[in-house]
Amino acid sequence: MTARSDTICALASGGLPAGVAVIRVSGPGSFEVVSKMVGSLPEPRLAGLRTIRTTSGEFLDRGLVLIFPAPNSFTGEDCVELHLHGGRAVVNAALRSLAGFNGIRLAEAGEFSRRAFENGKMDLVEVEGLADLLSAETEMQRRLAGEQANGHLSAVYDEWREKLVFVRAMLEAELDFSDEGDIPGSVSDRIWADVEDLKLQVDRAIGNLRAGEIIRDGFKVALAGLPNAGKSSLMNALAQRDVAIVTPVAGTTRDVVRCELDIDGYKFELSDTAGLRDTDDVVEQEGIRRAFRTINDADLVLHLIDLSEQPKAQPIDFDRPTLCIGTKSDLASNLVPSSACAFHVSSASGEGLETLRLRLLDAVRSHTQVESLAIPSRLRHAERLRLASRHLASALEGSFLPLEIRAEELRLASVELARVTGRIDTETLLGKIFSEFCVGK
Length: 441
Hints:
This protein has 14 helices and 12 strands. The protein is an alpha/beta fold. It folds into 3 domains: 7-119, Gyrase A, domain 2; 139-208 and 374-422, Four Helix Bundle (Hemerythrin (Met), subunit A) (Up-down Bundle); 215-367, Rossmann fold (3-Layer(aba) Sandwich). A 6-stranded mixed beta sheet has the order 3-4-5-2-1-6, with helices on one face. Strands 8-9-7-10-11-12 form a 6-stranded mixed beta sheet, with helices on both faces. α12 packs antiparallel against α13 (403-421). The longest helix is centred in the middle third of the chain and has 26 residues, at 152-177. The model has no long low-confidence stretch (mean pLDDT 88). Homodimer. Heterotetramer of two MnmE and two MnmG subunits. Pfam families: MMR_HSR1 (PF01926), MnmE_helical (PF12631), TrmE_N (PF10396). Belongs to the TRAFAC class TrmE-Era-EngA-EngB-Septin-like GTPase superfamily. TrmE GTPase family.
């Protein structure tokens, strides 16, 4: 990122062409620069219809202008929004004109959000939540991201830090003013129960990480079984489109084929894997190796058994949660319910597909049962929380240690919580986080 004193501009709305395009300008020169293109500026936070001209005075467009004086703006700086017609030529001409003024340049990826963070408009958890909200594709992803972007998860972390501040204050009072009459003796003995309760809350949040990851990144489902068990056909039937190649030739699927599903607001990542069998084909062996790697990484394995060819096949022990399903029920003659299979499906007729969707929902909900969606969903949070929990444990278990040492452990726990929200952090980490944003946000 370059100097914060620069005024920056970028397209802040979606891809072009569009009905309306929003160009955002932020920085100390925003009002002066835009006024040279539109004439008089409207009142703050009131849209005004203006004729917008290029630096040479040529007509560019007629659109709405809004101004947001600092600090009451997204970035905390003076901001302007130009609402133009969303043609590529119009937007490009407007950006060229803005960038033609001294002291103004095109924004870098995530630079608006970074300025909001640096000006105290958002903390790091809220920034990450905003990034997730922009990329959310399912309802549960939206709800999870909203808890972070709206500051609900940050409020949890801040509450924990405030408790630690109070506890440390009590310890400092005993250490520094134990001879004063208004400081009761052994006050620290009464605060360790609060520290223990705080550690339980932190550990509970760490335990919810997997639920957050599943909601954010998707529930991984691997389709496994012998060649021609109907894995690719089932994936296509669930996706309602041709994702995987289907042929009667055994070993058609050589690599892992993936697709994403939205079932009742949850994201599922389905992986169609190579048929599992002994083979001398080097390419197929590599496909089977990748299949087992995908299976071992799955949250749920769907073991498919072809009822028309393999009615006596038994489930394979995949060492992962497994749901055994009989396939091609429309081709099976004299079909007898198999104790090995939970139920039967037909990708051709659609039989059993709704039952499968319900079973997938039951599986993902069993992994995401949480009281609130204000839970961590990133490994960065979990790493900091684990360190905080470790320091809290050291303070609790160190009853034989001097009080100064135990107080230091509490201070270190507080530091780790501060790092989650970005109150204490490194430039390298900030650069990585904000680089994930698109230009204009």
